[in-house]
Amino acid sequence: MIKTPAGFLFSGLHCGLKKTNKNDLGLIYCGSDAEALGFFTKNKNVSYSVTLSKKNISNSIKAVVANSGNANCFSHKTGLADTEAITAKLAEALSTDKKNILIASTGIIGKKLPKEKIIAAFPKLIAEMGKDKAESFSQSILTTDTVKKISYGEIKLKSTTAKIMGFAKGAGMIAPNVATMLVFILTDAIVEKSLFKKIAKEAIDESFNCITVDGCMSTNDTVFVLSSRKNILRSATQIREFSKELKRVCLDLATMMVKDGEGASKFIKIAIKGAKTKEEARRAGLYIANSNLFKCAVYGANPNWGRVIAALGHAGIAVAEGIPIKMSDLTRKDITIDVNLKRGAFAQTIYTSDLTPEYIKINAEYS
């Protein structure tokens, strides 16, 4: 059973953005306005939803509306105004201010978002809110995903339990800097805001920013972290446990995305050690993970370690002859690649998938 953090309700339904009858509009409602953090794509051409949420993220948040089936990006000159109209109508329906609404979108770039369909669905979306509607919300954010992605954690307190819950979507255009993903992390725990942001950033850097499927960066990537502020964490032990659980939930969701990567047949863990710096270890892992030659070799169960050496050189990392490169059985579904650069004491783990003919088929037909 999914254990929902106190203070949140969910809803999800089909409003007509997708050709199928699957959910394409979702809502997270924060009963008591939530403390919010946002982490967004580094792409310079962003969706109207990202632009508006960047503007609103510093406010207390009453609700998050999310849609799939349409990226709400680069479609027409009034796209931002239409997005503001959507959030304003939702705010009116929830008796709050439009600045207290966040929005996230995913889907095809360049198609006008039919705001009328979304606004018309708000009465039903709000009427059906409930703690038991987490699955409906999770379904509403999927695009080429084949499975819903939900994870949760708990922190034991003296007289109660603080909870963390996360939703994610993402299967293609997955690369660091929060990949092509929408992620919603909810908790009823809270710490001082600067520490809250530090803890969240560390969790995201060690999870969502350590995965790649195809090295492509989206226009819509968004991670929201929301706290209903029901349980104040005061002791160092509680804060450590919260940080640990948040990292676990984020990594759980991140690896779900890689395992559900478009066309993926194998999940690959690349463990780098012996780097001069943390940044070098990360760069080494990402260049290997984003090498199409390496990914194809893994798909074919071909232990061609020369692909690893070439990728490291592409990353600007010179290594000595005979550095240790260990590969687990490449015929299996879960694979580990261990690489010791023998240049220093830093390490980093990166997660990726293989490159298959099915990936090409999916993206050749995606429109």
Provide a descriptive summary of the structure in words:
This protein has helices spanning 48-56, 79-93, 115-127, 134-140, 193-205, 236-259, 278-289, 292-299, 306-314, 357-364; strands at 8-13, 25-40, 61-68, 101-106, 149-156, 161-169, 182-190, 211-212, 222-232, 267-275, 325-327, 334-340, 346-353. The chain is an alpha/beta fold and 367 residues long. The strands form two sheets. Strands 1, 2, 3, 4, 5, 6, 7 and 9 form an eight-stranded mixed sheet that branches. A five-stranded mixed sheet has the order 8-13-10-12-11. Helix 2 (79-93) packs parallel to helix 3 and helix 7 (278-289) crosses helix 9. The protein starts with 7 loop residues before the first strand and ends with a helix.
Radius of gyration: 21 Å
CATH topology of the largest domain: L-amino peptidase D-ALA esterase/amidase
Q: Regarding quaternary structure, how should these chains be classified? A: single chain
Quick one: CATH superfamily of the largest domain? L-amino peptidase D-ALA esterase/amidase
Average pLDDT metric: 93
Question: Which segments are poorly predicted (pLDDT under 50) over 5 or more consecutive residues?
Answer: 173-179
How far the N terminus sits from the C terminus, by CA atoms, comes to 36 Å
Structural class: alpha/beta
Let me know the number of strands. 13
Number of domains: 2
- Proper CATH architecture of the largest domain: 4-Layer Sandwich
Helix coverage percent of residues? 25-40%
Order of helices and strands: EEHEHEHHEEEHEEHEHHHEEEH
Tally the helices: what do you get?
A: 10
**Can you identify the CATH class of the largest domain?**
Alpha Beta
